[in-house]
Design goal:
Length: about 950
């Protein structure tokens, strides 16, 4: 597999190394760690800033985003920066231990290429491994090594590690000797390691430890939740954040079963003689309260006669049971679920195979006997269905390579070899093929991902939980109810990781050229569940929201406002009332039991005097919160959606479609960037010249005296003195080569190019402050490259059509491609769509403004663009609106507009302005290409204060002047 540094993983590691810059690794003092955290929180925003009295540092990372890779990388960084050699990884299950062991093996060469060191793993299993731990891990203190343990290795007095050993030549136990090394611990999936016995022995280590998890308990749910809740948080990549950043798959849920409404007795209150019934309608869970002798519409008006502990009796002889966690599926239901799973697998397998991606499917089944027993119904039914559906598929016109791929489904004896099971207790097997299959599922990830391996359907009874996942799980079928301690989010987590192709390359958003539709065409997980799973989608969404600390940009919670408004409930209620009633920016959704954001709040309240007066000093903080909330992501897709129905659609007006199609086909040109005459020497000279102009001041030593105030639970600085300048002369000369090499990797610049710039730079500035000097140089180089590329860049327009040219042919578009917000009302008559869908206030104004003429030109049609991608050296750029204008002489003008919700052009970020500059170049060259067709293309950014008329007149004036 190919391993690459991911920005988000590096951010996590950078946060940790920054936090520990002043931590004393010889003492491992909790109060010193607390001081480091307080300083970190002054400069960094974290959703949880609770401090503990322990030595934990908490990292929240969503399942499938590479926690294991991140903490293995962290081990090398802690060794590099702080000379730490000894580490322990604690895991709750054998499957996770095997996964960690496999990851160390797979990443061995990658980390050696980065750090020129190997990490030696030690795994405790028996007396032989105990000897290895004593003679190498304990006695060789200079070796970079990690001990991997399950909690069961230390949680009992009689464990071998808790006994002494004659080879240690002291009276301490093996574990006490390990603790004396002050190893740094990593706890993987801490929510599964909350046992009192484990924590009693673990606390004997009394050294720094990191808790890496996708799930942490929130305070107040259970008695010991507070002790294990998030604290000392240093990095947060929760479920919602991971999805917004395109780091996990999208989830589609398919519900199979009776279309009739499932109705249950939820609770009965004898004192009030009333019962509450729950039922699912169109995937939404609803409730209805009934008193005795009242009629129930869901049962055709039958009246409630009596209620017992677990049953409710009605006048039509029907009996409703109390809703429980478990359910049983009959053979017909299991067959339907298996059939749907195979259909979905084949449906996507052909498309994925063409991209060199192997599709895997995972089935959770009720019992081992259903797959391994004498009469294994699920296994037999799967084989029967698979063979039949495969035969139907082979009758179609298939790609020859894919046909050859299907030909390896049977072994030499004619036995189907596409499926295998893994179950708890699978350590050995009399059946060699069965044993090989188990080993491949658990340990041989690369072999399982190979297109030369026919195995691609995996069956398990919940044994494959945390610690096991596979990037190429695309279908997950749930053929049984799960125990209450297995969350839906954990089940889904087995298939959230982004897929990889046959070359080991992960199919990231960047790999797909930042094209959302192409990315999600490959990276989505189909989940098949029974209709007996009450409100599976709603429960999954709720679990995601409950476990996330950065809430959905579509939902506003009182908890979020409580943090901003110091818990003043009356103020929160008044503010929510204005947002809901006066401004109509939010609405309460009874089904979701949440406030849904219906329009951009930041733009609507920033100039509202009533809200300014109400919120007082808190107003700037609240304003900044909504600005951040509404600009968190450009990802417009839903994280979880129903696979049983089409997404909400926007209607294209047929009378305008013809004119817009002409505009669309002209501007939606496939183009690639070409570079001509890049003046590398000019970049080198100018970068060094600009750097030498900067003032890099010397760093200084500071002495601080601090005191911990136990009553107030704060650390107070009593004295602070500057002692003198830091002299980097000797250390910089010694480490210069390594620093330049690291800088080259981090800045992603060729070392040769960087060395030429460095040779022309004033070296004294680096000796004053190496960190500040390299940061300054990086920014200067970036600016100079951008300036030079802008002069040298050109666009080569292809005659081939863009895939998205057919986007308007169906007469509708998925709503999410146009925006997050919906407003009832009528858009302008010449607007392409029937509905008003938008992302910002300026977009809403543009859609509804009545502009049929601009001077002598007629606006025939205009539209918000769902997908117009312009390649730039810095990601792609997507402008917002396009206008088709025609003058009295029949000359056509295509005006492409980038709407910005700013009052002043200076508010537009530097990166955004750079991309706009490339877009201007793109459209200038495209216009030149089309000038023989009597077509002019104009591109312009439009800010809040400008009307369309002003924007167009300004543009026409600039063009005439040129």
């Amino acid at each position: 597999m190919i391993f690459e540094k991911q920005d988000y993983q590096q951010s996590c590691i950078d946060n940790i190394t920054s936090l520990l810059a002043n931590f004393d690794f010889t003492t491992h003092n909790p109060q010193e760690l607390k001081a480091c955290l307080q300083d970190f929180y002054q400069h960094n925003v974290m959703p949880v800033t609770t401090l503990s009295e322990k030595l934990n540092v908490d990292i929240l990372m969503e399942t499938g985003t590479g926690k294991t890779f991140t903490y293995l990388n962290l081990i090398f960084e802690l060794n590099k920066h702080f000379k730490q050699n000894k580490f322990i990884i604690f895991v709750p299950r054998k499957a996770i231990l095997e996964s960690v062991k496999q990851n160390i093996k797979l990443t061995k060469d990658y980390f050696y290429s980065e750090y020129k060191k190997h990490l030696k793993p030690y795994i405790y299993t028996d007396s032989k491994s105990q000897s290895q731990i004593i003679n190498h891990y304990i006695k060789n203190e200079d070796e970079l090594s990690v001990l991997i343990l399950t909690n069961s290795a230390i949680d009992k007095k009689d464990n071998l590690l808790n006994k002494n050993n004659e080879n240690l030549f002291n009276t301490k136990s093996i574990f006490e000797n390990i603790a004396a090394l002050k190893p740094i611990s990593i706890i993987d999936e801490p929510h599964l390691l909350k046992g009192e016995a484990f924590n009693r022995y673990f606390s004997k280590l009394n050294s720094l430890y990191f808790r890496f998890g996708a799930t942490f308990p929130k305070e107040g749910k259970k008695p010991n939740d507070k002790e294990f809740a998030l604290s000392n948080m240093i990095y947060c990549l929760d479920s919602i954040s991971a999805f917004r950043a395109y780091l996990v798959k999208q989830v589609k849920v398919h519900t199979i079963g009776s279309s009739s409404t499932q109705i249950f007795l939820k609770s009965y209150h004898a004192r009030d003689k009333k019962a509450i019934f729950s039922y699912t309608q169109s995937g939404i869970e609803k409730e209805q309260e009934l008193r005795l002798n009242e009629s129930f519409s869901q049962l055709n008006g039958a009246t409630l006669l009596k209620v017992e502990k677990d049953k409710a009796y009605f006048s039509d002889q029907s009996i409703l049971d109390k809703k429980g966690e478990s359910y049983h599926l009959d053979e017909d239901e299991l067959t339907a679920l298996l059939g749907k799973a195979i259909d979905l697998h084949f449906e996507k397998e052909q498309r994925l195979f063409a991209k060199g991606i192997k599709a895997l499917s995972l089935f959770f089944i009720p019992n081992i006997a259903d797959f391994r027993g004498e009469k294994p119904f699920i296994k037999s039914t799967f084989e029967e269905l698979y063979k039949a559906k495969r035969e139907e598929l082979l009758k179609k016109d298939l790609d020859e390579n894919y046909r050859a791929y299907l030909a390896q489904d049977f072994d030499e004896s004619g036995n189907l070899q596409v499926h295998q099971g893994y179950f708890s207790g699978d350590k050995g097997s009399k059946d060699d093929k069965e044993a090989a299959g188990v080993k491949m599922i658990l340990e041989e990830k690369e072999k399982l991902l190979s297109l030369n391996t026919p195995l691609r359907f995996i069956f398990s009874v919940w044994a494959l939980q945390e610690g096991w996942d596979n990037p190429n799980i695309f279908t997950l079928a749930k053929l049984t109810s799960s125990s209450s301690d297995i969350s839906i989010h954990q089940q889904v987590g087995r298939g959230l990781r982004l897929c990889v192709n046959d070359k080991g390359k992960r199919i990231t958003h960047r790999f797909m050229d930042f094209d959302d539709d192409s990315f999600y065409r490959l990276n989505y997980l189909d989940i098949i569940v029974s209709a007996k799973e009450s409100n599976y989608i709603g429960n999954l969404q709720k679990e995601i929201e409950d476990s996330s600390y950065i809430l959905s940009d579509k939902i506003l919670s009182k908890e979020e406002l409580s943090d901003l408004l110091n818990g003043e409930q009356d103020l929160i209620d008044d503010f929510m009332y204005i947002l809901r009633k006066d401004l109509e920016l939010i609405a309460y959704d009874k089904e979701k039991k949440a406030y849904i954001i219906q329009a951009p709040i930041y733009e609507s309240i920033k100039d509202d005097d009533k809200i300014k007066e109400l919120l007082g000093e808190s107003f700037p903080k609240v304003l900044e919160f909504f600005k951040a909330k509404e600009s968190q992501s450009t990802n417009k897709h839903d994280q979880v959606e129903s696979g049983d129905k089409e997404p909400d659609q926007v209607t294209i007006r047929p009378n305008l479609a013809k004119d817009f199609k002409e505009l669309w086909e002209k501007i939606n040109q496939k183009a690639k960037i070409t570079y001509q005459d890049i003046k590398e020497q000019d970049i080198i000279d100018q970068a060094a010249k600009e750097f030498n102009k900067t003032n890099i001041e010397k760093e200084s030593y500071t002495y601080e005296r601090k005191r911990y105030d136990a009553q107030q639970n704060i650390i107070i600085t009593e004295d602070s003195i500057t002692l003198g300048d830091i002299d980097y002369q000797v250390s910089f000369a010694k480490d210069m080569q390594n620093l330049l090499l690291d800088f080259s990797k981090e800045a992603k610049l060729p070392l040769r190019f960087l060395l030429q710039i460095y040779a022309k730079c004033d070296k004294e500035k680096f000796k004053n402050s190496p960190k500040k000097a390299f940061t300054t140089l990086r920014n200067i180089i970036k600016d100079q490259i951008h300036h030079n590329l802008l002069q040298c860049i050109s666009y080569d327009f292809s005659t081939a059509k863009n895939e998205s040219e057919s986007i308007f042919s169906s007469g509708t578009l998925p709503r999410h491609t146009l925006g997050r917000y919906y407003e009832s009302g009528k858009p302008a008559d010449n607007y392409l769509y029937e509905e008003i869908i938008y992302d910002s206030k300026i977009e809403r104004i543009i859609i509804t403004e009545d502009n049929e003429k601009v001077d002598s030109k007629t606006i025939k049609v205009f539209a918000k663009l769902p997908k117009l991608i312009i390649p730039t050296p810095y990601k792609h750029y997507e402008p917002d609106f396009a206008y088709f204008l025609e003058d009295s002489n029949g000359k056509k003008i295509f005006f492409v507009c980038e709407s910005k919700g700013y009052d002043d052009e200076n508010e537009i970020s530097k990166n955004e302005m750079q991309k706009i500059k490339y877009a201007e170049k793109f459209f200038t060259q495209l216009s030149k290409k089309l000038e023989n067709d009597n077509i002019q293309i104009i591109f312009k950014k439009r800010i809040n204060k400008q009307t369309l008329l002003e924007c167009l007149r300004q543009t026409q004036g600039e063009n005439n002047a040129n």
